[in-house]
Amino acid sequence: MSGKYRINKIKQEHTIIEDVLPLLEDLAALKSIKSIIPGRINQRGGSGMQPYLQLKYNTPTGIKVLAKTSSSIQEVFVVTDYPDKTMRLMKENGLVK
């Protein structure tokens, strides 16, 4: 195996911020989402905040989302054929800010 694998639509090639994985699993439950690809992690200042997902913008393959915790921020790319519909569903279900 090449080190790349998926669990419930979530690509597990790179590290995922530990507290964010349950949020990504909730996203994966949406039928309009084909795949979730976690990306780069950066350090961030802050303390005591609960992890959350923040919508950013549409991409050629779907949606860019930021996963934020009190100490880190991670890019997450959501692959979907219906970005506008998926963004609406994410908001309606309280999955993103």
UniProtKB/TrEMBL annotation:
Pfam families: DUF2103 (PF09876)
Name of the molecule in the record: Metal-binding protein
